[in-house]
Structures
1.
Amino acid sequence: MSDGPKVVAAISEDSEHLADVLGRAFQDDPVSASWLPDTQERARRQRGFLKAFLDEAMAMGLVHTTPDRDGVALWLTIEPDHPAEENHLDQPVRDALGPYYEGFALLGEQMGASHPQDRAHGYLQFIGVEPERQNRGIGSALIRHRLAELDAIDMPAYLESSSERNFALYERLGFRRTGSAIHLPNEAVMLPMWRDPVTQPSDQ
């Protein structure tokens, strides 16, 4: 039995609430602060920005949450030489970010250049937990749930860590640094991380 809370698939009726959870979870994220430096603008704009990616994952990937809906993880499956198409996200992201769009677009280009494309993998696009519910194993449970599924089909996983605390968690879950760090204003850094699947022990 896995540690932490139960993990369930989110449904469309959860999307508004889970977008709120993501917005609050990323309010103090150092990478978010690097391209949305004004705290009030960040609180106002980031929720709509994250909602666009949440809707994409609902339609094209996997969205996992908990029975209490206090955490959420967005996963996509990236196929070799066929990265997830994000053109349809351009307009809702522009609408959400307004004058801050160019800062995100630059970051997106850097992330795309660092993202491995030569092997199918699960991509943890975003994960967030309600601030008052953090440090209770919710984020770990959300990630472990999907990693177990990926291990079962011998598929690796990829993510970008945006903080030292998250980096330590991802290392404990088997992720390792890959490629070059992405350096942003205000000394923020994104660290690409890769995890090879863990071979399941044979019953024989």
2.
Amino acid sequence: LVERQREGDTVRVVVENNASTNADVEITDIVTAEPASVNGANVVEMDGEWFVKWTATVESGGEAVLEYDLDEAADCDIQVDGVESAKLTVNA
């Protein structure tokens, strides 16, 4: 399960692993404003969009969280790699 939560200018991307094995995931959140305080994620700007790229290993039954600041009016589009689409739920 990958879920984006927004509260004011704070964005949280929560990855929850409900499988019986560890999951190596690569999350890319494409945003329309420059993010701040990205907590170890890589940020690349291209053509007026910022790609917030984050890689995590999530243990079986565990979760990982990426948190960053973003203008409340900015749009986001999330992409997830490393999980079979049949096993992936995205609430973003």
